[in-house]
Design a protein that fits this description.
The chain is mainly alpha-helical. Helix content is 25%, strand content 6%. It has a two-stranded antiparallel sheet. Helix 1 runs antiparallel to helix 2. It is globular. The two termini are 28 Å apart.
């Protein structure tokens, strides 16, 4: 038991979900990644808003988060 939770049972919070490429930046690479996964479903890294479909809402989320991710 760790801090009231079983060790390993807590998932870390993704502080920059629009950084789908994981390089610490939200930029054209992430935008193109979303476009290339258009229509993808649950579990797809390009599903930024986690609504189980990669679509315009994910593309807009990337544009809205454009720039450097918080540390």
């Amino acid at each position: 038991l760790l801090g009231g939770f079983w060790a390993g049972s807590v998932q870390p919070i993704d502080t920059c979900p629009a950084d789908v490429t994981g390089d610490g930046l939200v930029n054209i690479t992430d935008l193109l990644f979303v476009v290339s996964h258009w229509g993808g479903g649950a579990g797809d890294a390009a599903d930024v808003n986690e609504d189980h479909v990669v679509n315009i809402l994910d593309l807009l989320a990337v544009v809205a988060a454009w720039g450097t991710c918080p540390p």
